[in-house]
Amino acid sequence: MNARQVSHYICLAVIWGISFTLIVRVVAVFGWVGAVSLRAFAACVILGVLAVAMRRRLNFGGAWRPLAMVGSTTVAGQLLGLSFATPRIGTAMAAIIVGTIPLFSMVIGQAWGIEKVTRNGRIGLVLGIGGIVLLVGFPSVPFTSDFAIGCAASLFGSFSAAIGSNVARNSLQAVGSWEQTIGAFLFGGIVAFPLLMVVPVPVTPTLADVGELFLLAGLCSCLTYIMYFRLVAEVGATIAISVEFAVTLVAVAIGAVLLGERLTPAQIVGGVTISVGCALVLDLVPARWASG
Q: How many structural domains comprise the chain?
């Protein structure tokens, strides 16, 4: 990767890692549905205004169906699962589960005939499953139904993101990063919005609360997704999606140092196991190392 691509990679890791803390604050005010639907629409507004101001011509190429699929999964599915889970299981735990996205992506890619699972990939999948068992089975907090549901929601979000990444890789190669981001968040907001009738905004937001929502939308949605889709196009999905490892490290560090969140030794081993499994799945481990 060149210097610009490396800087984008680092920015993604830092911003997405920090975003877990911001998600908890926004969910507390707007609810886990409002935090997603309103964030998605805010992201569309921000990018639309910027596109007009920059006189940027947008060409969606008639790719509305795959954009709707990416929006329903990568935006609505992933962010709804994440927003529901993070306040219940903690930022560190949620971030580690997000690190399973490459595992799910490989399985889906294999099932769809997009990718072929190598020997290393099969070993990585087994390690990843074992890591998930360690994470969920040995928590630092009492194993309650709320904790279990939170873990399930986080896994659902990761699985949804993996579906969306495969759809984008397979059907949106000719669509620009701005168009992918706008289209995905537009459809993601549309899918999530009706759920507000069931899970309404719990309190009246203040101006500061709205500011945090737009910060989450502008920084953690608009900027990062444009950089991410551009990285996918330039260096490939394998390298781009590996940023989830670095995101996990940043989020876990913030959760432990600033928020006082604890992980059991078994969960730490589980997180490391998932990271190693994902590295094998993504073929980031040299063959001579993997084979011993």
A: 1
Contact 174, 61 (CB under 8 A): yes
Could you report the per-residue pLDDT of 33-44, keeping only the tens digit for each? 999 999 999 999
DSSP string, 120-171: HHHHHHHHHHHHHHHHHHS-SS---HHHHHHHHHHHHHHHHHHHHHHHHHHH
Predicted TM-score (pTM) above 0.90: no
Give the residue among 108, 32, 127 at the shortest CA–CA distance from 76.
32
Could you list the residue range(s) of the whole structural domain that residue 64 is in? 3-290
Question: For residue range 151-194, what is the model confidence (pLDDT) as tens digits?
Answer: 999 999 999 988 988 888 788 878 888 898 999 999 999 999 99
Placement of tokens 């139904």 in the chain:
145
